[in-house]
Write the structure tokens for this entry.
Amino acid sequence: MRSAVFFLLCLLFLVGSAQAYVLIISAPAEIRAGAPLEISGTTTFPVGTVFDLVIYRLQPTTPEEVARKIIVVDESKSFQESFPTSGMLSGDYKVEATFLTDPGSKLGSDSVTTKVFRITDRSGEIVLTVPLDQVLGEALRIEGYIPKAGVTTITLKVSGPQGAVLPPQDVRTTTRTGKDEGYFSRTIPVAERGNYYVDFYDIRGFMTTVKFMVDTPHEESSIASPVITQPPEETPLPTVVPAPLAGFCGALIIAGMLARRMQKK
């Protein structure tokens, strides 16, 4: 009897152990800022199980959450999610699978639910010598240099408005006498206004993404200002003294002068 009870307990233990589910996530150890972060994984959790993939920035204090996506387990029992890294600071991060409620013993010991990775920023290696705002008919001009690159080959991948992708452009850099900067110049004609994103790659991989804005030329206004004509100032007419009145005034003056002379005598 005791042997039967012991056997049943062992069987229950094995059944309970068999119910432990496995969840394994994977992520690259290092990624360039601006490149998409691809997280993939597999699981034995039942179809319909929901959990989150959360990106944290590691820092001396509490990790800072920077992104989160919901995963729903489907029939394939595998998953893949992409996280944009544009704007993320360089440094150490981690991605973690979190459940709304703690799975506890349901999560098997073989599970990998956390991965640490590093983001490096190479945007400072590209120096542009053209404006980011350009006009149709002149765009898309991509010119600049890479410090200390010398003669090398870079690849430009351009995506335009509404997701249009242009063929990759391989550009050979040149140097100038006595300098080691690698200068590049390429004009890619475009016929549509909007935002264009240029991804730069070199032999080490992705470097950075630069956003260009292309618009139609602004026509200068040729509306003439109204001319306001001021009326000429009126010049006051000279005062004309009538002749008889002038003679009478002169006679009075002469009479006064004669009267003064006679008084003196």
In short: The chain has two domains: 16-120, 124-215. The longest helix spans residues 243-264. The chain has two helices and 16 strands. Residues 5-9, 11-17 have pLDDT under 50 and may be disordered.
